[in-house]
Amino acid sequence: MKTPHRTKRQILGQHFLASPGVLQKIVEVVNPGKEDLVIEIGPGRGALTFPLAEKAGKVVAVEVDPRFPPVLEEKGLPNLKIIEADVLHIDFRELAAAEKGTLLRTTIAGNIPYSISGPLFYKIIAEREAFARAVFLVQKEMAVRLAAVPGTKDYSPISILVQIYFRVRSVFAVHPGSFSPPPRVESVVISLDVRPEPLVPVVDERRFTRFLRASFHQRRKTLWNNLGAAGWPGSVIEQALGEAGLSSKIRAEQVTIAQFSSLYGFHGRGHAGAGGLDWDPDSLE
Hints:
The longest helix has 15 residues, at 257-271.
């Protein structure tokens, strides 16, 4: 997966959580124990990092801004490791394998800037075997998208993919006044627990992602038109929709996860040419 270059403005534009009460509630949601490795994204000055390190077996904090690692290191905590890097360029599987040692579980946590939330969640999906749980503070808009259901304007490929692999829970809202400087939007703490088994079977995750993005490519158009633009012959679309029990006038946002699985399965059984759906997964949102 291609990862975008992060500009200095994006790096320095983060809003830091400053409310002790909210920080304590997040630590309670993460609920780390001495047998846990916590990978924290964007620790900043350590407002969440240090409380997590008090309870966890080990905290690995990944920080892209060079101003903050020296601040974090001043505490001299033996179970805290700081990595100065862009989290979008780190493989969570490799990091967890290198740092976990005898610890039993891995959790990912952090206050996620909106500028990286899209690519980060696709990365979380792809590397989900590295951890059992993720707890993030995100803008409300992103939290709504992740938990969106069919028939709503926020339902999208990322909603479907996250829900296939994770149990998604919005835990509590965070007011702008809890941040420094205060953002103009509400934020939400979300919890993502990796499912023991995917909600529906996915044979080729990368191709399934392309299929979903093609289906939602132009939201105002019908699923029929979007699949046709992606290369599916009309006769094949008719068969696939019929097999899934769907109307020819249905739009992608009205299709359930199980129905998308059925449509994709129809394609996977060789009823539609692969070439028409060979999209670049990073070219569409």
